[in-house]
Each structure stands twice: as C-alpha cells, then as structure tokens.
Amino acid sequence: MTARDNHWKHLFAPDSVALIGASNTRGSWGYGIMRHLLASAKRKIYPVNPTASEVLGIPAYESVVNIPDEVDLAVIAVSAPKVPQVMQQCVQKGVKAAVVVSGGFAETGEQGGKLESELVKIAREGGIRFIGPNTMGHADTSSQLCTLAWVGEITPGPVALISQSGNMGHRILHNGMSLGIGFSKFVSAGNEADLHLEDYLEYLAQDEKTRVITAYIEGLREGRRFLQLARETTVNKPIVAIKSGGTKESARAVRSHTATLAGSDAVYEAAFRQAGVIRVDDDDDLCDVVTALLYQPLPRTSRIGILTIGGGLGVVAAEAVEREGLEVAHLTPATIEKLDACLPPRWSHGNPVDMAGLSMVEYPKIFSSLWALIEDENVDAILLQAPVGLGTRQLSGMFNREEIRAFQGREKSNLSLLRQRIREFGKPVLLVKPAVEFASDPEVSSLFRREGLPVYSTPRRASRVLNHLAWYRRYLDATRKNC
Amino acid sequence: MTARDNHWKHLFAPDSVALIGASNTRGSWGYGIMRHLLASAKRKIYPVNPTASEVLGIPAYESVVNIPDEVDLAVIAVSAPKVPQVMQQCVQKGVKAAVVVSGGFAETGEQGGKLESELVKIAREGGIRFIGPNTMGHADTSSQLCTLAWVGEITPGPVALISQSGNMGHRILHNGMSLGIGFSKFVSAGNEADLHLEDYLEYLAQDEKTRVITAYIEGLREGRRFLQLARETTVNKPIVAIKSGGTKESARAVRSHTATLAGSDAVYEAAFRQAGVIRVDDDDDLCDVVTALLYQPLPRTSRIGILTIGGGLGVVAAEAVEREGLEVAHLTPATIEKLDACLPPRWSHGNPVDMAGLSMVEYPKIFSSLWALIEDENVDAILLQAPVGLGTRQLSGMFNREEIRAFQGREKSNLSLLRQRIREFGKPVLLVKPAVEFASDPEVSSLFRREGLPVYSTPRRASRVLNHLAWYRRYLDATRKNC
C-alpha cells in the first residue's frame, strides 16, 4: 500500500474514532452507531455532542477539535446543514478519514447538491477522504470496526460487499448470514461524493481477507474504470453483482435515491459479461451464487446429472435445468449398469435418476448412486434432491437410539466422502432439499455447512446457480486462452 | 352425497382400516404407515402380515379375510406382483375402498401395465374404488386419517392438495406449513388407475373444510372434465396449480414417472387461463400465492403503491413491479400532502415512497404513511418493505424493557388496524421483509400470522403474487359479467 492509499487503513482499521452526533437518545442514529463502535475494545472511541457531558457512559466532547488525542476516523451523523462546518473542524483537528452518515445532500435536489459540493471542497482541501454522504456506514469484521446503526453482529468470512443502498446491503448481510455466509468488509457507498464504488472495488481486489466481492449497483460514476478493474479482478476473484434500475420507474427512483443515472440495462448487461461480472437478479440469487462459489468447483460444461428420491422431483428438476438453458446429461452405459446394480428394478433407467420410492433403510443407496453419477464422464454437475444428512428429528420415531447413531455415523462419513469426491472430480454437487423440514432443522443445516454443501430451496434456484457457475467457467476459460 | 359417492366417506373418514403389508421393520413403508395410522384413536386399525403375530403391539392377521370386523378402507403396501391377489381378498372381505401404495405398475413399462389392468379389473368387479397404485398415500386432518409413511404431523387448515407426485406433495405440505398454511386434505394421486385427479377435484370442490384447492399436475387423463370442473369451481374457490413437464426431457421423465403424457405446455397454459386456474411455477410460488389468497383481498387493478424504509429497496421493488407487468401507481396530490405532513422533508416525494432513513424512534411514521397510501384512489395494492412488527430481539439493546413494551404495544394495535383497513378498502398489503432477521424471528412471524399478514422474502416474489391476484380478479370480474 502506498502512502497515497493510507486512507484505507484509517477507514477500515483506525486506532481512534470520533462520532460526531453521538447521542443518548435510544433508537436514534447517534445511539445505534455509538453502540456498535463500543462493541470492540480495539480502539479509542470519542463521542462528540455539544449538549451532553457523556454518551453511553463515555465522556463527550463539545467539538472534534477538543479531543485531546489523535483522531484517525470521524463518523459524522448530524443534520445536513451542519456537516460542512463539522468537516471543517475535522480538517482543523487533522482527522484522516470520515464517514458521512447524514442524508439531505445531492439526493434531495439542487440545494442539497450545493451543500454536497461545499462538503467535497472542504474535505479535498483538507486531505480527508470520505464515505458518503447519505451512507448507512461500513464495517470490517477483521479489525472489528462497525459504523452501522441498525445491524446485529456480522459473521466474519471471506465475502466483501459494496452496496449503493444501505438497506439492500443490510438485506444481503442478513440473508447471507442466515445461509452461513461470513463477511470481510461492508461499505454502504451512499452518494459517493468523494470515494466511489470503483475505489472500494480496487481496494477489495487487493484485500487478502476477501475471496468473493459482491455489489449492489444502481449506477456507476466511472463506468470504464469499473470495467477495467472488474476485468483484472474476476480472473482471480469472482464479482457477483445486482444491477437495478433497469425499468422506467425504477430508473426514476434511482435518481432520487443516490443521485446517479441508472443507465441502459442492455449496456450494463453487455459490459458485465465482457468483464466477467456475474450478474444476479436479487439478493436471494446473490446469496445462492455466493454459497456455491465459496464451496464448489466450477462445472466444465453444462451437462447436469439429476438424482432424486421420487419421479416428480425429477420431472421438476429436469424442467428447471432445461428452462435455465442447461442440458440434462445422457448417462453412459457404464453408469446405467452401476445404477442397475444398486437400485431397485423400478428405477427410471435414465437421467433424471429417480430412485423410485426408497424406504429409509435403503437410504445408503443414495450415496452409491451419487458415486456412479459423479464418475460419469458425461456429467459436469449434479443436482441432488434426496434426504441425505437426516437429523435426529426426522429419524426418531422411525428408529431407536442406537440405530439412529449408526445411521447418522454412516451419513456423516458419506457426506465427508462426497466433499472429497467433489474436489477430486471437480464437479459441483448442489443439494435441493426434498422437503423443507430437512434443511430447516438446525442440526441438519449445520452439518451441511460443516461439509461445505450449500442447500437450495428449489431446483429452479439451484439450476440458476449452475447456469451462473457454468457461464463464469466459460468466461475464465476463454480469457485464459487469450492471455 | 349420493350412495354412489359413499366411497369418499370410506376413503377419507373410515371407521376401520386394514394395513396389508404392516411391518415391524423400522424405516420400512409398512412401519411408517402403521405409525401414522395409529396416531389417531378415531378408528380401528388392523395390521395384516402373514409372518408376524403382532405389529407395533397390535395383533396382526394373516390375511385381510381373517379380520373379524368390517373393514372400510384397505391400505395395500406389498410388492406389486402380490397386489392383485390382495385386492381379490379385499373384495372377498367386502372392503369398501383402498389405497394402493405399492409401486411397479404402469410406470415401469408394459409388464407393469398388464398388472395394473388386472388390478383395476378386480377392483371394478368387486366395487372397490382406490387411490394409486404408486401413491405415497393420503391424509385428512379433520378425520385425523393419515396413510402416509414419511410425513410429520400435518397442520389442519383450509387448503387441500392433490399431487401427481408424492414427493412434490410432501414439499408443498412442508413448505406451506413452514409459512403457517394449514391443510384440510392431501392426496398423492399415484398412477390414477381408478380414481383420477378429476375425481378428487370434484370431491374437494364440494368439501366444506376446503377454501383453496392446490395441485401438482404432470398430465391430465380427463382434460375436458378437468376444465369443466375447474370453471365451475374457481368462481367460488381458487385453484392454484403447478403444471410440470413443459420441456423435452421433463416430458420424457413424466412418462416414466406416472405413466401419463405431459402434453403441450401452451395448450395447458391457455386452458388453465380459460378455466380460472392460477398457474404457478413451483412450490415456492404456490405457497406464496396461497398465503395471499387466504388472508388478502384481490386488487381491483394492478396499480401498486410501494412504501419502503430506504431508497434502494424502493428501486428494487419498482423494478420487480414493472418486470411483473404491474404498474407503479401515480399518487394523488392529496396523498403527497399527507406524506409531506408526516415524513422528514428528504422523503422521495413520489411512488416508490422512500421514507429516507427513519430512525427507530420515528417508526410510527411508517403506519401514518401506510394509511395515506391505502386511502389513495390511485392505489390498488401495497408492497410494504419496512420494519413493522419488530421483535424483542431487534429492539433490545436499543431500548429498555419499558420502552420495548410500549413500542410493541403500539405496533400491535397498528397491525390490527392495518388488518381492518385492508378489509375496509379491499386492498391487499403484502409485506416484504426489509432484512431477513426480522421475519426469521419466531416472535415476529407468529405476530404476522396472527394478524393474517403474509411476509415475502423479496419484492420479486411479492410482485409475482400480486400479478396472480390481479389476474384472478380480472378473470372473476369477466366471468361474473358474462353470467
């Protein structure tokens, strides 16, 4: 990192933070942010509030200039008209970076735009780089910094998130965490008056804690730079992005939200494809794709093996696969022979492989069939819709305690073996829960998480993920060939 | 009910049931079904097993003919080749109706087809109507009958389900129950050698316990009869159906699953539209639509008001609304005035209504805004994406215990008021959770359920539901006009 880039250290791992607008009013922004700042003992926190002697038990200062120590980062949460003056005081104090949470700038119209220009001028002249204004804050799980007001604890992990909407960011964080995704860094970009989404992208591309970059995008201020950065990044680190504002009224809403232009949807679509950016429709899709990228290999091509516990599941899965433009794989005769050897004669004798009503005592056959499919040279990826990894709740009543222990022991070693074979063959295996009760059992879902097996709610969602993975693999292959 | 229809009583509310193929082998079909049959004390249960003296502690009989009492319903779970002989014994015994769980009939090819014809001949001559073969069973929550092997307890409620796949049926049951949907009756139709999906539909159309009929369909044996019945039914009771097998490989899979023809997807699409059947893509969609049908009015037309806690949510919601072919409503000047009076000046001044970063203390403004929108004559339905109904988990840390009690009390009465206004104005209000954590809190979700407010995971899913509701309303209006 060059001296020029020092602001990143001050933004994401400051030694001291001042919160200007810290408040004792429960439920207010200044209270929520203060609580999150105090959650880590890693740094000094200085509340600034001209009318309170202390905030949450910490002595408060009338102004940032009165703070006796150095201040690396200022978080500003006062009403918009006061922000330029506060930024001036930050300059005077020698503050190194800032987060301007306050809204009421360019997003509100001409008057707010003028206020924003004034703010930028002061910060630029004073050498302060800043996030916002109109941001919901940011977070770094490794340095344990959180300037957000309303979020719970963020699970650490390898996924970074840049969002041009604080609320969409919160949705993605919560949705991701509920699926076991952990995050390295989160930035709610706000109006991007100073630091742009492109700056965050450049930083995260280099960030060792980040393996996958995700983004919610309404409009890019530096389209060319974004594409250049994305092209360089996606050969090593996937970028998964939502681009919204593609319809008339939503584009209008973008203008009054972050004061950007949504731009032509088709242009974005083409540009993302050229730069290897995986474009998804919403936060459900985003989290679905990210779980697969974290734990599964990319499929060579798009020939899908389907293994199900029942015919209807196979029908629906085959339809989902075809509607997503993937191929229902043609199994080799060798695979058919192997399946004949392990399944009851009424099995479907083709792909989708319908195991045709196995009883619970026959469930080990699911894994024998899975090994046959994963070894098939005509199969690039597998959709598995069968009750593997059953929990105590599903087994009790049906078996006694000893039988359950034996059953689960066998399942566990089979799931580990599956993990191993996925790596060995380089073929993704995506699990679709055959019935919701299986995967909603915490015992089952934690088992799947330990084994790095993402679970999807429907074949349609799993097929969409496979389509994204297959596309990304084709992109990478083509790019590497051209190098 | 005429004498001819008496088999319905024997199928769904029998006084005595024989399970032929009852078993003490844990994890087997005959064990699972026996357990479910015994769960209710409402009727006599007779296990039949030639090699066991008792099953699950109940004296077993060598054959159904040896049972000393009358047998209303026989559940047959023996291997396929033995089924005709067992059916013959049922005829001899005077059994009134049957469920043939065994697979290995027409779905496996020519040989199985012959066996199935033989079975039908015996049952017809003996006057026994039956479900199956190759069915996973059926259930009636009101008579507390369950012939399924693998399901947990089914929550009673007003939704009936006919499924041409046992496993898809189980998915829908579990998915529905996890969203608070209760079921009246469930039939896994199997191969429909005797009773057809059309028979179940005719029965459920008359069933007083059923307010909404749902179906998973691969192919119809009596297309014309289905459409006639559907047309008569949908004017009073909505029918929500998945029709699968619309692609090449999935159609092929249909043939080897339930031995039916999937037929042309376009023909089904057109026929369903003419008969008022709401066609959905998968079980996620099905459950989404059903929750709305149970608790919400149908919108007059498709002009959607969008109320969000943040701009990005509004952008994404507007895009979802437009992509689903709905309209982003133009608010009246009166509504704008009302919103100006209750929201901070930085609000979006149009639809989507972005409340622009309210702090938690300002959350009551969400309801004031909602009242303004619901009263707007240009608004037919509302997508609400804001943190209403917050749970203790979200509020604690931010407020003290007393404040939380006051906050939740206010929320609760506002939600009741919302319920009332939805009815009064005849406008559906669909909640989209602003962040996943809100709705995954059991305290919150049970509150929403009590108030009959369905919660959707994304604006896309909620918009899809509104599109279905609006279409159904148009269908009903046109149909009633023609009468």
Descriptive report:
The structure is a homodimer of 483-residue chains. Chain A has 483 residues and is α/β, with parallel strands linked by helices. Chain A is 45% helix and 16% strand. Chain A is built from 18 helices and 20 strands. A 7-stranded mixed sheet of chain A has the order 9-8-11-10-12-13-14, with helices on both faces. The radius of gyration of chain A is 26 Å and the shape is elongated. Chains A and B meet through α2, α5, α8, α11 and α16 of A and α2, α5, α8, α11 and α16 of B.
List descriptors.
483 residues; 45% helix; 7-stranded mixed beta sheet; homodimer; 18 helices
Query: First CA to last CA of chain A: what distance?
Result: 27 Å
Question: Which quaternary structure do these chains form?
Answer: homodimer
| 3D shape of chain A | elongated
Read across the widest sheet of chain A, the strand sequence of neighbours is 9-8-11-10-12-13-14
> Roughly what is the average pLDDT of chain A, rounded to an integer?
92
- The class by helix and strand makeup of chain A works out as alpha/beta
Helical amount among residues of chain A, as a percent range? 40-55%
How much strand content do the residues of chain A show? Answer: 15-25%
Largest interface: pair, residues per side: A-B, 94 and 93 residues
Extended strand count of chain A: 20
User: What is the CA-atom radius of gyration of chain A, in angstroms?
Assistant: 26 Å
Q: Treating each run of at least 4 consecutive H or I residues as one helix, how many helices of chain A?
A: 18
**Unreliable segments of 5+ consecutive residues of chain A:** none
For the largest beta-sheet of chain A, the strand count, sense and barrel status come to: 7 strands, mixed
